[in-house]
Amino acid sequence: MQILQFVIDGLLLGGVYAAVGVGFALVWGIMNIINLAHGAMIMLGAYVTFWLFKLAGVDPFASIPVAMAMLFILGWLIQRYLINYVVRAPMLITFLMTFGLELLIVDLSLNFFSADNRSVQTFYSGARLDLGGLAIPLVHLYTLMVALVLVTLLQLFLVRTRIGNAIQATSMDLDAARLGSNVVADGWLERDGLRDSCQAQLAAAHALTQAERERAERAETQLETERTDRRTLTSHLTSTASDNSPQPGPQPRGGARSK
Fold it and tell me: 143, 190, 204, 240: which has the fewest C-beta neighbours closer than 10 Å?
């Protein structure tokens, strides 16, 4: 019975960690960026929930949409003004970028919030559901249910919407996705929302900005110009070589006589 209790506790907590991993995998699979600041972003979402509960008495589960919205905006700003500049760089560069970002977030949090342990205590924090000698914490059960709902919504978003299809196409072939759609999924927009014990917000992607489209068009125009210049140069060299080649003289009539 004790082993079964351990299995249930592991499943409840593992479901939340799986929701956390979905957001991490979304960024890695689409942008090929390992976001080392992922845990720091989850911590910020937890602080949003904590302060909403402490200052306004908002229930942790009711604060999930607020935490998701705030982390969504923060994720967009990071992706727009930081990640876009290294998205095509080698993986080591993105490692250093996200690692430095993680250090910055953690140090700022220590400066503003200190390192004291904080928790949210509600009227149902210690409530349990007893089933044949097995104790199921209601907080963990509710958190697992919210995580499953968010993962399901993310899956439906990826499968049923145009942006979701663009995200999947981008993860397969970025250049081909650009040819077939104006939407190029960057996949960075943040995932940190599931708060309570260790919630994670799941994110989608945002459309390719106008500046990025203009850069792509300029690069394509430049490539076409270079191809035209090479064809012109080849044609000129061929014509010059033809003009400088010796022309055969007139052939004598009747043949030559030997003396």
Answer: 240
Report the alpha-carbon distance of residue 191 to residue 151 in Å, rounded.
11
DSSP 93-109: HHHHHHHHHHHHHHHHH
Amino acid at site 7: V
Structure tokens at 79: 């992706």
Start-end of H helices in the chain: 2-31, 38-56, 64-81, 91-113, 138-160, 162-172, 174-180, 210-244
> What is the token pair recorded at 38?
């992922």
With 50 as the cut, is the pLDDT of residue 103 above it?
Answer: yes
Q: Say if CB 201 and CB 67 are below 8 A apart.
A: yes
Q: Where are the domains of the chain?
A: 2-120+128-219
pLDDT value of residue 127? 86
Non-local CB neighbours of 216 within 8 Å, separated by 6+ positions: 178
With beta carbons less than 8 A apart as the criterion, state whether 104 and 97 touch.
Answer: no
- Helical packing angle, 38-56 and 2-31, nearest 10°: 110
249's tokens: 């003289």
Given a cut of 80, is residue 240 above it in pLDDT?
A: no
pTM value is 0.65
* Banded model confidence at residue 246, pLDDT cuts 50, 70, 90: low
Calculate the average pLDDT of the chain. 75
